[in-house]
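Re: [help] complex structure
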Amino acid sequence: MDLNFALHLSTPELILGIGAIVILVFGAFRGDKGMTSVSALSGLCLLAAAFAAATSDYGVAYNGSFVIDRVGLFVKVTIYVAALFIIVLGQGYFDRLNSRRFEFPILILLATLGMSMMVSAGDLIALYIGLELQSLAMYVLAAFRRDDAKSSEAGLKYFVLGALASGLLLYGASLVYGFAGSMNFHDIAAATVKNPNTGLIFGLVFLISGLAFKVSAAPFHMWTPDVYEGAPTPVVAFAAGAPKFAAMVLLARVLQTGFGHQAFQWQQVILLLSVLSFVIGGLGGLMQKDFKRLLAYSSIANMGYALLAIAAGGTGVSALLMFFVMYMVDTLGLFSGQMALKRNGEPITQIDQLAGLAKLNMPLTIAITMLALSVLGMPPFAGFWSKFFVFGAAIHAGLWGFAAAGLVASVIAAFYYLRILKLMWFDAAPAGIDASPAEAKWITYLAAAFAFPGIIVFLWLAYPLAQAAAIGFGG
Amino acid sequence: MLPAIPNILSVVTFLPLFGALVILVMRAMARKDDSDVIAGNAKWVALWTTLLTLLVSVVLVLQFDHAKPGYQFEERFEWFGPISYHMGVDGISILFVLLTAFLMPLCIAASWDSIKTRITEYMIAFLLLETLVIGVFTSLDLFLFYIFFEGGLVPMFLIIGIWGGKNRTYAAYKFFLYTLLGSVLMLAAMLYMVNVAGTADIPTLSKFAFAREVQPWLWFAFFASFAVKMPMWPVHTWLPDAHVEAPTAGSVMLAGILLKLGGYGFIRFNLPMFPYASHMFAPLVMGLSVVAVVYTSLVAFRQTDIKKLIAYSSVAHMGFVTMGIFAGNALGIQGAVYQMISHGVISGALFLCVGVVYDRWHTREIAFYGGLTKLLPHYAFVFLLFTMANVGLPGTSGFIGEITTMTGAYQWGTWVAFVAASGVIFSAVYALNLYKRVMFGVVTNDELKKYPDLSVREIAIFAPLIAGTLLLGIYPAFVFDFTTASIDAVVAGYRAAFGG
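Output below.
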């Protein structure tokens, strides 16, 4: 495996890494007034990386610590595109707040680079470096409105708890290394067969706990509502999707490649996390008043479904891929929908403020209705198909009881999405509404159009890709 | 010879959706101050779309070949994985398509003056509902069916919640969550079936022999969904709330069509796909059915709200349907389908009758009314006719449905038919009592003298319903001609599966 091939395989990461540094220097000279051009350059960078990923070869590089397979590339393209939308949203958001800072797009680039490394991690070191690069960038982003008490609080909470989780993860990684004698997932797999012992499993549980924190699975979900509420909305829209996708795929890779022979050991742990997540996510959301906190619980519930796909193994990976793309579009749409709504110059934060929206802004109401129905899992919208894949995979793996429990939990969660509908459609409109910022509005429309009818084309195109990707994953 | 319309099922299914899009575009293009004009146009677009849909469905019915038991007018495109866009109708579903297309223009016409706010949205919601309901009957893929079946919840949720009465939010939530809970269990079963059989094609699955151990579970999951939809006792409690709060046309759709989705589902899924479990659980269904027939009839008798009374009467009449279906013989299922079609017309008409007085006096309290025969003679005639049809008077369609289902049930077990027959008497008790209190006697209230008899529009709405009820009552072969071949096939498959 020569260096040229290794560099060739890591082209997307190189574009992002070098791009971020060059743009950082450029931004440092231009100052904050150059945020627009920095955003544009970062966007180009992401597009180039997405193109490179879409046309990339497959293989293993850097002594097995960097794995490029179909799953990884599928995830990378999705994450790069998501990051692109976030930069567009963030540009408008900070513009209107009059607090342009050129670091925003660059931090997004660095976080994206971290995620990109996470999905390609082939050993424990790559896993940890990718995760930390992504996390550190996200901590800063969460506290990006440093003049805002809630944003600072969100950043601090995210950092302290995130550091704790990283500690757990690192501890688990060192245990696994100690007992397996190698960092590489394949060598760990060999060690689990040759010399299975409690130490390895002990380490695995810590690894799972650390990653469960990153994807905000219950019972490691406590930070989620607070961070979502305080952090700037574009950052939350990012944090709710891409990093969780990367961490979920990383988790699947660790479990299926490194501990594939120990499936009976970790499946129970994952199932427990899964059930706790969708039950807590479903029940916790019922009493929420803040729009972003509500979506935090919605996200916890959805992570429960994603974990169910991981527990299913086998076809679960293709289900995970399909699930996440659709989930990311839905959340991106809902957050940008929230950003598109302002009453008397103040952004809407409480769900109650949505009251009577149908009389004030019909197009946005229809878009938000479609997105809310989509996360609720109502056919024919995207969210239904995401559940279709996850529960299909669970039933395929014989976990039909868990699938039924998840479906029933989704009915509980349906109540709080219905509340959004009820407020918008049934209730009286209290006061006027401001004109919506263009980019937030259009991203909401775009997401709604993806939820339906775009989903018809998406399923037709992406399903074979996800199917092909899952074959050979973890082997 | 009628011209053949290519992809006629897709046309009849998506035509209303197209109408809804036209209204949406019209609204988006219009200036703000034109809202009255837009509302007026929306009504006309909706009416013409539904009439056109009716026309297409009549063409469909005329081109249908009675003699063939299988699916006709099939369309099939592969979508992804095991799922395809597969449409087709047999002798059972085609009648429901016609029933939906028949009731829809009446719903639009009935809402013409009574809906005064957000008219464009109202028309869009109804057109959307029509597409989704027709789609349920025309789809031959498990998940396509599920999309239409579940999707119908959303427009109905909005119709109840936006244009409903005082307690509309509660009723809308209850309707939605109740039905959703039933449906997700069905979804789990569908995922299992696709996993085992490797296809989501309904005709293929109908012939697939599912293992006897899993059949009860799958049967129960489908049953949970359809029993709520039907609704069967004891999961019927959402229906009275939904009916009372829904606007008149919403109630017509609910009672006329949406309840039939449950019975249709039993015939399409439970019987052919899980014959063993259907046979095993038949006594349970029979028991629940006769409780529904007797108990809800008694409950209906005690109601003080006209709409609630008719809602409970719907539950009782649906009891005959489930009884007929799970009798598992040709006569019973024929009767069940007949009863559903007939009830679609009669209950729709009854809710429209309530709508007539509600539009005038804005109350549904039975005690408020009295002596209307003297004041509104035309209305009294119409209401009497449909009350009699509801009771099952020979000569009306209600009679044929009840007598056929009971005969079918008699073959299954004497006591079922015996208890159900007593339900017929109870239905006469509450229906005649209602008629007596509202129509006969002295005029209780001076308010009642304020409004005139039926308008031309209202007569035009009732005329086709009256014609339908009498025609079906006098010449039931119209329905039986269509259903015989298909139902014989269902029964043959069902009997063969457990050697009965």
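Residues 438-470 of chain A form the longest helix (33 residues).
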